[in-house]
Structure formats: structure tokens, C-alpha cells
Automatic annotation (TrEMBL), chain A:
CDD domains: TM_PBP2
Record-given protein name: Amino acid ABC transporter permease
Coiled-coil segments on the chain, per record: none
NCBIfam families on file: HEQRo_perm_3TM
Organism: Shinella pollutisoli
Origin organism lineage: Bacteria, Pseudomonadati, Pseudomonadota, Alphaproteobacteria, Hyphomicrobiales
Keyword line: Cell membrane, Membrane, Transmembrane, Transmembrane helix, Transport
From TrEMBL, chain B:
PROSITE patterns: ABC_TRANSPORTER_1 (PS00211), ABC_TRANSPORTER_2 (PS50893)
Record GO terms (molecular function): ATP binding
Keywords carried by this UniProt record: ATP-binding, Nucleotide-binding
Source organism (scientific name): Shinella pollutisoli
InterPro entries: AAA+_ATPase (IPR003593), ABC_osmolyte_uptake_ATP-bind (IPR051921), ABC_transporter-like_ATP-bd (IPR003439), ABC_transporter-like_CS (IPR017871), P-loop_NTPase (IPR027417)
Lineage: superkingdom: Bacteria
Domain ABC transporter residues, every copy: 2-262
Family: Belongs to the ABC transporter superfamily.
Keyword hit for Nucleotide-binding: yes
Pfam families linked: ABC_tran (PF00005)
Identification of the protein by name: ATP-binding cassette domain-containing protein
Length: 354, 282
């Protein structure tokens, strides 16, 4: 016990004060923390208000009572309160399919079938299917919108991205040129620009009789936009597969598509999973840009919650809650990516006894 | 069985122009250079009898790996004819060609040809899966072949967990899975260390003798060629320089290139002479 303790102390001492530079950094960090932490604790805990209404909140400390009162709004925004079990169910469904997709054990055909079904179920739930009054998408908001747009766009963009990546490596010149132009065009445009196209230009381009829901337009454009980024990541994976692999598959009598499907893509996609997760994290945060076309995603809902006349101006608290939600998802994804990388690498190189 | 008649393979942007120049008696090197031409195979003719094991031998860049790829049209010949059992394979459509590759021609490569995410058994069973053979049946066949190449009980391993020599055995088992008449082997043992290479040669000769597959075997190793081949085809700069048995090449080399090639070669001991096999299958 004492031995373990002294070992920990030794490690700490050498880590914090081992060299002159380490000592300097340690002292500087402690000084900085001593300036930052006490006011933060005072604001978040000591002077904070945990209950009551807006009048009970002092401006000196955090007003967690606001969060308690408005959490529902932050999560679901303007969705009709009586029907909020629907978006709650959507969150659960999406969480379930994401977790299922994250487990290598479950990778296979059933999952590919489950994805479109889940998306369809979520869309129907949000729309208020089987109720007297359908709920238009401008009443959707909060976390389900963020998660839904993210999951749908990423799921739909991936197959498009695979085709783009294959096209970019194709021997057919026309196809290759199209793919390069498409990818460079999309990557050279900011996502806000793409959202404005969805909002303003797409309705003009479509005939009057064909009015497409704003949410759907945004989803389509974001999907096309993300596909370009994902395509480049997948192309990197395709390039990592030795050309001998396709040659051997051809020699076995496989045609182009079966070679890609059975031999090349399964290996290439495994390689790029960490890169894909990295993209997915960036994309989740990018969904907050949906606010510019008036969609109440999580961040926008939080902003709107502090505009309630009864609870005016508690932006800090609202944004902190949202930041925490984003952080939990992104940190989880990042840890998952590391775990998976280790697992896949282990499966390839570690010898197993028979 | 396999007949190649005056086949050419040139690489470059304008195959026809390159071919026209390369076919002249004295090709103009400057023209070929301007066309950025690479002449892979230059007018090779060769026929391989049923059950015969022919080695294509030559230095790197002599066109031997290119030539073997013309047999199953992994590369399209620029000119010439390729026939298998008298049937012209250059006239086959994509579907018939895939059929030919999956049923009649097995191929083994030097490296990187196994599918990394599949188990050893699934790799061997892949050609059967392609043909729609039921799971239990193809797995039984795969296990049988694994036992044949000396890998009993390793079917559940990942291919990445095997050594180079074991991976080549898996490649051979996979090439045999569809029970093809023809085996194409592109330097299958070249990347292995000498002891393992020798073992695999011995095992391959026994297997080949037993199964009587018509085999085209590419190698740059003259000892390997002399040891296993019924007939050796020596190539230089895309052309076939000499064809004959190991003894013929060693005792009557056609020119200095052949002489230099075979000078230090070991002729196989009498008991390893494979020519008896040819007679048995002729």
C-alpha cells in the first residue's frame, strides 16, 4: 500500500517537476487555474439558483432553474407539447441504430435494411403520422432535428460517396471528370452557401406544382454536399488496397461490381472508418448551421429558449447545456473511433492460436 | 490445350501505332520512345499440351508476367490469337470470359492476392461462392483442399495471421477450388525464403503430378524452372528466345543470353525428372 503510494508520488513528481521546463509549466498552469476556477465555481455552484422562477435568479450566479424549466424546449423546440413522446422516440430509435452500427459484430445485410426503415419510421413519427393533424416540419426542432439531419444525411451520403470515389478512379474518362468536377465544386463551396441554395434557389428551379418541404430540401442538399467529403476519404481507402487484389478477383471470374463489392470495398471501408468517424463528428457540429435557414436545430432551439419573455436572457446556461450534449456525443464518437481502430488492427495482425 | 499464336502486347496511348512500328523488322527506337511505348510481349508463339507444366523464365521486364496474363485475358493482347482447347478466347464476351476464368483457369499470384478480411476457409471457398455453391458444400471442399496443401485445421484463421509460405498455400488451394484444367502461376514462390520455397516446390510438384493440371508457371529463378518444368520457355525483351527441356537448354543453348542464364543452373536429379509425367498424360 505504502509502496504503491510512494510509486504514485514518484511518478507525479517526475511528471510535474522532473525538468525545469516541466516545473515552469506546472507553476504556470496552477496560477492560471487559480484565477479561472474560483469565479467559475462561484458562478456555477455557490451563487447559483437551483429552483424557483426567473425572479428568484440573481444575475451573479447561474440560473439552473432556467434549465429545469426550459430543458424540454431546448430538446424539442416548438414541437406540440402533447406529442413530444414522438421526437423522444425518434431520439431513442436513432441512438439505437447508431449504437448497432457501431458494433462490428452486427455489420451485415440486416443493418443495411434497418437503416432506411429506421429513417422512414423517424420521418413518419416526426410528421405526426396516424394523428388527426400532421405536424409540419417548421414545428420540428431541437435534438431530434439535429440527430435526424445528421444521421440521414450521413447515411444517404455514404453510398453516393462510394460511387463518386469509384468514379474518380474509373478508367472511363467522362465519368472520372464528372466525379472530379462534382467533388471539387462541393468542396470549394461553404456549407452555408449550400443551405442557401436549398432555401432560395432550389424552389425557383423546381416547378410550382412541386413544392418540396424545406427540411427535405435541406437534407437533400446537405447529403450531396457531405458526399463529396466522404468520397475523398473513401478514395484514400481504395488507394490503400493493392491493385493485385482486383487483379486476383478478376482472375477468379468476378466482374467489376462484384470485385468492388466482395473484395475491394469491404477492405477499403474498414481502413477509412476512423476517418469517417472524424468526419461525422465535424458534420454533427456543422448541423448547427441549419439555423441560418430557420431550422430549429439543437443550438438554435437553445438560443430561442432564452428569448422566452418569462426567462429572458439566460443564454450562458442554455449554451452550456447544448455544449454538454454536443460534447457527450462527439467525445463518445471519438473514443469509439479509437477503440475500433485498435480492434480492427488487432484482428488483422495478431496471430490467433487454432 | 493452350495455344498462343504470334501474340503481341504493347502498352501506351496509341496501341495501333506502337504495334505497327514494333512489328517492323528493324523498329525505330526513337519512334517508340516518342509514342511512350512499352513492348511487353513481341510476337510470342507457344503451345502447352494437356497436363504439361511449362515454365516461363526470364529477367524482370522480359515479358513473362505479361505473357501469362494474356492466357486468361487479364490483359488484352494487342494482336495475335489465344486459343484454349481450340476455342478462340479473344472472341468471348464479358460473361463467357468470366465463366472461363471461374471454371477453367485458376491463378496464383506472387502476393497481395488473398482477401484480408476473410478467413482462410472463406478465401479458398470464394471461387465456389461466386458460382453459387451452397455454404456447407463449399466449406467442405475448402477444408479438403486446405488439408491437401498442408494447412489442416487452419481454416478459421485470418489470412493476415499466416506466414508468407502459408499464404501462398492458401492461394494455391483457392486456385484449385473450382477444379480448373489450367493453372497460371505468376512467380508464386519468388517472395519466399529459400527453404520454404524448396518445400513448396516439392509439394507443388507432387500435387501437380497427382492432379495433372495444365500449368504455366512464371519464374525468374532458373533452378526453380529446371526443377519443376516439363519444358522451359526462356524470354528476353518480350520475345521467346528458346523453348525446350532443362537438358536441352543446358546442353544446347541457342545463344549467349541463354548460355549466361543456364551457366550456373543445377540440373535436377534423375528421380525428380518430371518428363515421365508428360508421357503419362499425353
Amino acid at each position: 500500500m505504502t509502496a504503491a503510494l510512494s510509486r504514485i508520488l514518484t511518478t507525479l513528481r517526475s511528471g510535474l517537476f522532473g525538468t525545469r521546463a516541466n516545473t515552469l509549466v506546472t507553476v504556470a498552469t496552477v496560477l492560471l487555474l487559480s484565477q479561472v476556477v474560483p469565479p467559475l465555481v462561484r458562478w456555477a455552484v455557490l451563487d447559483a439558483t437551483f429552483g424557483g422562477d426567473a425572479a428568484a435568479c440573481t444575475r451573479a450566479g447561474a440560473c439552473w432553474a432556467f434549465v429545469a424549466a426550459k430543458l424540454r424546449f431546448i430538446l424539442f423546440a416548438f414541437y406540440p407539447p402533447g406529442l413530444q413522446w414522438r421526437p423522444a422516440l425518434v431520439i431513442l430509435l436513432l441512438a439505437a441504430i447508431l449504437v448497432a452500427s457501431a458494433l462490428p459484430r452486427l455489420w451485415g445485410r440486416p443493418l443495411l435494411v434497418a437503416w432506411p426503415l429506421t429513417i422512414l419510421a423517424c420521418w413518419l413519427l416526426m410528421q405526426g403520422a396516424f394523428t388527426a393533424t400532421p405536424i409540419p416540419s417548421n414545428q420540428w426542432g431541437g435534438l431530434p432535428v439535429t440527430l435526424f439531419v445528421w444521421a440521414v444525411c450521413f447515411a444517404a451520403a455514404t453510398p453516393i460517396a462510394v460511387l463518386l470515389a469509384l468514379a474518380r478512379r474509373s478508367t472511363l474518362g467522362g465519368l472520372r471528370t464528372f466525379s472530379v468536377l462534382y467533388i471539387e465544386l462541393m468542396r470549394g463551396t461553404p456549407m452555408v452557401g449550400i443551405l442557401y441554395v436549398a432555401m432560395l434557389i432550389l424552389p425557383m428551379a423546381l416547378p410550382d406544382s412541386l413544392s418540396v418541404d424545406k427540411m427535405l430540401r435541406a437534407i437533400v442538399m446537405v447529403t450531396l454536399f457531405w458526399a463529396a467529403y466522404i468520397a475523398e476519404v473513401i478514395r484514400a481507402g481504395l488507394q490503400a488496397i493493392p491493385p493485385g487484389q482486383s487483379e486476383a478477383a478478376t482472375a477468379l471470374g468476378l466482374g467489376y461490381w462484384r470485385t468492388q463489392r466482395l473484395v475491394v470495398l469491404p477492405q477499403a471501408l474498414r481502413i477509412v472508418i476512423p476517418g469517417m468517424v472524424n468526419l461525422a463528428i465535424g458534420f454533427l457540429l456543422a448541423t448547427s448551421l441549419l439555423a441560418v435557414i430557420g431550422i430549429f436545430d439543437l443550438l438554435n432551439a437553445a438560443r430561442a429558449s432564452a428569448a422566452d419573455p418569462n426567462w429572458l436572457g439566460f443564454y450562458n446556461e442554455a449554451y452550456l447545456v447544448v455544449a454538454a450534449v454536443y460534447f457527450v456525443i462527439c467525445f463518445g464518437a471519438s473514443r469509439y473511433s479509437q477503440w475500433l481502430e485498435g480492434k480492427l488492427a488487432g484482428g488483422r495482425t495478431c496471430p490467433r492460436t487454432a | 490445350m493452350i495455344e498462343l499464336e504470334d501474340v503481341w502486347k504493347v502498352f501506351g496511348a496509341d496501341e495501333r501505332a506502337i504495334l505497327r512500328e514494333a512489328r517492323r523488322d528493324a523498329p525505330d527506337e526513337a519512334v517508340l520512345k516518342r509514342l511512350r511505348a512499352v513492348v511487353g510481349v513481341a510476337g510470342a508463339s507457344l503451345s502447352v499440351g494437356k497436363g504439361e507444366l511449362v515454365c516461363l523464365m526470364g529477367l524482370s521486364g522480359s515479358g513473362k508476367s505479361t505473357l501469362v496474363r494474356l492466357v486468361n485475358r487479364l490483359l488484352e493482347p494487342s494482336a495475335g490469337r489465344v486459343r484454349i482447347d481450340g476455342g478462340d478466347i479473344l472472341s468471348l464476351g464479358p460473361k463467357a470470359l468470366r465463366e472461363l476464368r471461374s471454371r477453367r483457369i485458376g491463378m496464383v499470384f506472387q502476393s497481395h492476392a488473398l482477401v484480408a478480411h476473410l478467413s482462410v476457409r472463406d478465401n479458398v471457398a470464394l471461387p465456389l461462392e461466386i458460382r453459387g455453391v451452397a455454404r456447407t458444400k463449399r466449406e467442405d471442399r475448402a477444408d479438403e483442399l486446405l488439408a491437401r496443401v498442408g494447412l489442416d485445421g487452419l481454416g478459421d484463421r485470418r489470412v493476415g495471421a499466416l506466414s508468407g509460405g502459408m499464404q501462398q498455400r492458401v492461394g494455391l488451394a483457392r486456385a484449385l477450388a473450382a477444379d480448373p484444367d489450367i493453372l497460371l502461376m505468376d512467380e508464386p514462390f519468388s517472395a519466399l525464403d529459400p527453404l520454404i520455397r524448396h518445400d513448396l516446390q516439392t509439394q507443388f510438384m507432387a500435387l501437380s503430378r497427382e492432379l495433372g493440371k495444365t500449368t504455366v508457371f512464371v519464374t525468374h529463378d532458373v533452378d526453380e524452372a529446371f526443377r519443376i518444368a516439363d519444358r522451359v520457355v526462356l524470354m528476353r525483351a518480350g520475345r521467346i528466345v528458346q523453348t525446350g527441356t532443362a537438358e536441352a537448354l543446358a546442353s544446347r543453348p541457342a545463344d549467349d543470353y541463354v548460355r549466361r542464364f543456364v551457366r550456373n543452373a543445377r540440373l535436377p536429379a534423375c528421380d525428380a525428372q518430371p518428363s515421365a509425367r508428360v508421357r503419362a498424360f499425353a
